Amino acid sequence: MAPDLPQLIADADDAVAQIIRASSLTAERWRNGAGTARRIATGGDGRHPEWTLSLADIERRCEFSSFPGFDRTAVVVGDDPVEMTINATTCVLDLLDRVSFAGEDDVLADPTRGSTCLLNLMTRRGVTRGQVSLRHLRGSHTFEPDGVQACTVLAGSLLVGDAELRRWDTVLPGDEQVHTVGAATVAIVTIHQVSAADRAHSSTDKESCA
Predict the structure, then answer these.
(1) How far apart are CA 174 and CA 15, in angstroms?
(2) Residue whose C-alpha is closest to residue 100's, from 131, 59, 56, 55
(3) Which of 56, 129, 147, 167 allows an S-S link to 118, with CB 3.0 to 4.6 Å?
(4) What is the arrangement of strands in the sheet containing 70-76, beginning at the earlier edge strand?
C-alpha cells in the first residue's frame, strides 16, 4: 500500500476505521504565510469546512492566521514549550497544555527553546462544537461513534486491528465502534452539531492564558 494513502482497518467486529499516518501528511503554508500546518482531517463541505484538525509546526515567532467565525483549540504536542500571546495576554504552554480562543483573536506564538508542534482543532461557530480530551489508555479500549471524529496518539502506541499507531498517527473511527489495544497518551477529538436552540444562545468559551 502506498504510504501516502489512508489505510482502512477492519477490527474483530468488521467495523472499518481510517488510519492517517503522520508521515503521510503534507505541510502547507498558513493563510498568512507565517508557518506551516499538516492537515489530518476535515469535516463538511470542502469549500466551507465545518471543522479541521491539523498539526501546526511552530518553528519561530509567528502570528496565527485570522479565521473569523471559527473557534480554536491548540494543544502542545511537540517536546518544547511555546509562549502564546492572545489579545495581549501571555502564557507559556508546556507539553500537553492547551488553550482555546476565537479565530478572530490576535494570537502570537513564540517557541521558548526550539521548534515545537501544536494539535490544532478549528470548528465553525454556530454550526459545530468541538472538544479535545486528553486520556492515558492502557490495555483494551472501545471508542463509541457518538461524536468521536479522531483519536491522535501523542505518546506510546496503540493497535487498531493489525495496524500499530505511534506518535501523531490518527485513527478516524467513522460511524462504527473502534477497538484499540496498547498503552498511549491520546487526544480524543469530539465534534457535535450545534442545534438551532444552542445557536440562538451560542457564545465562545475560552481558556484564559492568565
Answers:
(1) 9
(2) 131
(3) 56
(4) 27-29, 36-44, 49-58, 116-124, 70-76, 98-102
pTM of the model: 0.86
Q: What CATH number does the domain located at 22-126 have?
A: 2.60.120.10
Q: Across the chain, which distance is largest between two alpha carbons, in Å?
A: 51
pLDDT of residue 199: 61
From the list 151, 181, 156, 178, the residue with the least C-alpha distance to 166 is: 156
Q: Sketch the domain layout of the chain as residue ranges.
A: 22-126, 129-193
Query: Using one digit for the tens of pLDDT, what is the confidence trace for 100-141?
Result: 999 999 999 999 999 999 999 999 999 999 999 999 999 999
Q: Strand ranges (DSSP E) for 59-177?
A: 62-63, 70-76, 82-86, 89-93, 98-102, 107-111, 116-124, 128-143, 148-160, 163-165, 170-172
22-126 and 129-193 have identical folds:
yes
Cell numbers that stand for 103 in this block:
479565530
pLDDT tens digit string along 26-77? 999 999 999 999 999 999 877 789 999 999 999 999 999 999 999 999 999 9
Q: Which CATH architecture has domain 129-193?
A: Sandwich (2.60)
